[in-house]
Amino acid sequence: MYAIQSAIRSIQTAVNCPRLTRFSLLAPKTVEVEFANGSAYNLSAEFLRIYSPAADSKVRLVGGEKVIFGRRHIGIMSAEPVGNYGVTL
């Protein structure tokens, strides 16, 4: 039952997701994204480092809080498209 609910949630999320219309790299610290619904975001390299799925393996617990080391001095040197919708930073 849980698997079916999870699949339905995934499909609904994909259907309701706005289309990306612009992606700009402002190296080394910021990425700008804009969507078809008019929303636009400036995402810092530090933010992307913290919330990247790849960062999960580098999470440490310090005083009961999650800490990702090396996040303040992170920079983005390039952005390359991957497949139809992904980006490698």
Automatic annotation (TrEMBL):
Matches recorded under Gene3D superfamilies: 3.30.2020.30
Bilayer-spanning residue ranges: none
Molecular function in Gene Ontology: metal ion binding
Domain Gamma-butyrobetaine hydroxylase-like N-terminal as annotated: residue spans: 29-89
Keyword terms of this UniProt record: Iron, Metal-binding
Iron found in the keyword field: yes
Pfam families, alphabetized: GBBH-like_N
PANTHER family reported in the protein's UniProt record: OS02G0197800 PROTEIN (PTHR35303)
Protein name from the UniProt record: Gamma-butyrobetaine hydroxylase-like N-terminal domain-containing protein
